[in-house]
């Protein structure tokens, strides 16, 4: 079974998340296959940039609670996106939840359409957006992060752009992406790699400093009684016991 469809056009390799059964959730299979695809892009001189997109109405639903990826593999995937010596551009026309926001935040440029929506749902499950904070918090508006991390509210593309999750909220995603991809095709490979290293330096430093601590926090939360109740309630489609 393939979780990622691939194609290429004039130096832009498209990686399309294609796991409709779980709304492109971060299963072990999807994380592993996407990581392998990015590694091939890194070594392919014919790839100038990567376009990350999705099938269906969901970009990524977050962690696959039934078949979760190894936490270390997920962190490695996020870092691979950030450190890839080629720009990674997200094309989003659907919903993004929890860990999927980490994947989105790791991308260099992100453009989304009006039908997309966003939510940090971790606090409602007894969890926290721990490891995904490494690519997100250096780029997000602090007040917006404070609100949406805590409340789990759903918000739209315009607010996501204001908060720093997106580069642009567009009525027509492909029209908005056209000049972006044209610009990347006109740039030299060396120029892109060096320029990306400048704009991602703070994010890389965050990974260096916080990976071990935040990974441990995430593991402890997932193993807690509260999180087990939250995940069970989610899978059973009911409110957890703490809802008042």
UniProtKB/TrEMBL annotation:
CDD domains: crotonase-like. InterPro entries: ClpP/crotonase-like_dom_sf, Enoyl-CoA_hydra/iso, Enoyl-CoA_hydra_C, Enoyl-CoA_Hydratase/Isomerase. Signal peptide: none annotated. Coiled coil: none annotated. Pfam families: ECH_1. SUPFAM superfamilies: ClpP/crotonase. It comes from the Bacteria. Belongs to the enoyl-CoA hydratase/isomerase family. This is Enoyl-CoA hydratase family protein. It comes from Streptomyces crystallinus.
């Amino acid at each position: 079974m393939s979780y990622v469809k691939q194609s290429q056009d004039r130096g832009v390799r498209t990686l399309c998340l294609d796991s409709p059964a779980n709304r492109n959730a971060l299963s072990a299979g999807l994380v592993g296959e996407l990581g392998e695809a990015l590694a091939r892009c890194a070594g392919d001189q014919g790839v100038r940039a990567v376009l990350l997109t999705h099938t269906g109405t969901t970009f990524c639903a977050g962690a696959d609670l039934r078949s979760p990826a190894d936490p270390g593999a997920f962190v490695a995937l996020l870092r691979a996106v950030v450190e890839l010596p080629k720009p990674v551009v997200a094309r989003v026309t659907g919903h993004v939840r929890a860990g999927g926001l980490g994947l989105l935040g790791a991308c260099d440029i992100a453009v989304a359409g009006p039908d997309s929506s966003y939510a940090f749902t971790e606090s409602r499950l007894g969890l926290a957006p721990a490891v995904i904070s490494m690519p997100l918090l250096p780029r997000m508006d602090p007040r917006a992060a404070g609100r949406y991390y805590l409340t789990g509210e759903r918000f739209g593309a315009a607010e996501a752009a204001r908060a720093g999750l997106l580069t642009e909220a567009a009525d027509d995603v492909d029209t908005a992406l056209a000049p972006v991809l044209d610009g990347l095709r006109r740039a030299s490979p060396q120029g892109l790699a060096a320029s990306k290293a400048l704009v991602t330096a703070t994010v890389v430093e965050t990974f260096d400093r916080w990976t071990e601590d935040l990974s441990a926090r995430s593991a402890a939360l997932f193993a807690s009684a509260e999180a087990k109740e939250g995940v069970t309630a989610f899978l059973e489609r009911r409110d957890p016991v703490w809802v008042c």
